[in-house]
Write a structure and sequence with these properties.
The complex is a heterodimer of chains A (about 300) and B (about 80). With about 300 residues, chain A is an alpha+beta fold. Chain A folds into three domains: about 1-110, Beta-Lactamase (2-Layer Sandwich); about 130-200, Winged helix-like DNA-binding domain superfamily/Winged helix DNA-binding domain (Arc Repressor Mutant, subunit A), CATH 1.10.10.10; about 200-305, no CATH class. Helices cover about 45% and strands about 25% of the residues of chain A. Chain A contains twelve helices and 14 strands. Chain A has helices at about 30-40, 85-100, 105-110, 115-120, 125-130, 135-145, 150-160, 165-180, 210-220, 225-240, 240-255, 265-270, and strands spanning about 1-10, 15-20, 50-55, 60-65, 75-80, 145-150, 180-185, 190-195, 195-205, 255-260, 275-280, 280-285, 290-295, 300-305. The longest helix of chain A has 18 residues, at about 85-100. Chain B has about 80 residues and is mainly alpha-helical. Chain B has one domain (about 1-80). Classes of the chains: A alpha+beta (about 300), B mainly alpha (about 80).
């Protein structure tokens, strides 16, 4: 079990806590003072983002200070286990806050974010990491450049306006490295990034229905960065959100259910992904996502399916 | 693979010490054209040369990986 919250300082109100997970709990003000002192105590380091683990009595808290990217000082705090799951959530939130600020966080977080992070486990962590749009775009660049100098990667990332700061790139690489998708090499003073795992998003039924002479055309369209972005985004969402997965599994068995307003968000997402089709007041099963993860040598290491 | 390149590096050093040999003349011109050695047959700098060789090795590996990734996607789609 773990908790994650975002805390910031407002001159008139003091420390404000915004809960990302779970029920609101009491957070000792001593802890908040301690972590803000750690982040802001040294003026020369206030500009930089910083991750650290703060021990507080018998507990430890993972903290991420966003840095001078926002008007007010913001710290994302996580407490509990599994530690790498908490760390991924903290980094994911930090990237999001840097991208669109704290005010728009509620609006920009997916409607099912709370459910996703509550159900995260080490086995679905890699999918969660790739579900972050900025990380996914960097991953797709790495798919085209499986071994690349860090400086060249940074140039590509900024040229394509994917990240707004080098910290975003660094954080994305930390998470991709943590889930084993990449490794970082140092070659005679140069930093290189090497892709280790390849995630392939598929649909069932798939290409068995494609005739041989059309295969090349279908493949090129499917293999395009734009399509892979959409497919990975949709499919990872299904496998990290148990409610979506259950709903799609249910539809696969029953083939048809009525369009229920109480699960409108979930149904609309599945319709948008074209996993199901809506016809007036009913929805029908169409296709299901399958994710296969291969190592770079070509052997399959994992498969996610409904 | 790195060992292979290290052997090549040793070979290049040998080539340079026998730079008057006609047999090695073409290879030396190639090395000069690629910027590995100077006009009088000296290695640009030992570190740089090793770096160039390793960079080439990684570029080659990148091409191999690209092909592998395409193969993985193609076989997954046709599976």
């Amino acid at each position: 079990m773990f908790e994650v919250f975002v805390t910031y300082w407002e001159p008139r109100k003091g420390y404000i806590i915004k809960w990302i997970t779970g029920r609101e709990k009491h957070v000792p003000s001593d802890l908040l003072e301690l972590i803000f002192f750690r982040a802001l105590g040294s003026p020369e380091h206030r500009v930089e983002s910083m991750y650290w683990v703060q021990n507080f009595f018998s507990s430890s808290y993972q903290c991420y200070y966003i840095g001078a990217y926002t008007e007010i000082p913001i710290i994302v705090v996580g407490h509990g286990e599994p530690e790498n799951v908490v760390k991924s959530i903290i980094y994911d939130l930090a990237i999001k806050i840097r991208s669109f600020g704290l005010d728009e966080l509620d609006e920009k977080l997916p409607y099912n974010y709370d459910r996703i992070i509550r159900n995260l486990s080490p086995s679905t962590l890699n999918l969660f990491v790739l579900n972050n749009e900025l990380i996914l775009q960097i991953y797709l660049i790495l798919l085209e450049n499986p071994i690349i100098k860090y400086n060249d990667l940074a140039e590509l990332v900024f040229h394509e306006n994917i990240a707004s700061s080098i910290k975003d790139l660094d954080d994305a690489l930390i998470l991709l490295n943590m889930v084993g998708f990449i490794r970082v090499l140092w070659v005679m003073g140069s930093k290189w990034i090497e892709l280790l795992k390849v995630l392939v998003p598929l649909r069932r039924p798939n290409a068995k229905l494609i005739s041989k002479n059309r295969f090349e055309k279908v493949f090129n369209k499917w293999f395009s960065r734009r399509n892979l972005f959409k497919e990975i985004k949709f499919s990872t969402n299904v496998f990290i959100d148990p409610a979506l997965r259950r709903l799609l599994a249910n539809l696969k068995t029953r083939r048809r259910i009525s369009y229920d307003l109480s699960i409108k968000n979930e149904l609309d997402f599945l319709i948008q992904a074209n996993y199901i089709i809506r016809d007036d007041s009913a929805v029908f099963f169409n296709t299901e996502p399958v994710i296969r993860i291969f190592n770079i040598a070509g052997s399959k290491v994992w498969e996610f399916s409904i | 693979m790195l060992q292979v390149f290290k052997k090549i590096l040793v070979k290049i050093r040998e080539l340079i010490s026998f730079s008057q040999s006609k047999v090695l003349w073409t290879q030396l011109i190639n090395l000069k054209l690629k910027g590995y050695i100077t006009i009088d047959g000296k290695i640009t700098t030992e570190g740089d040369l090793e770096k160039i060789v390793y960079d080439k090795f990684l570029e080659k590996k990148k091409e191999i990986y690209r092909r592998k990734i395409k193969d993985i996607f193609m076989s997954a789609l046709s599976d």
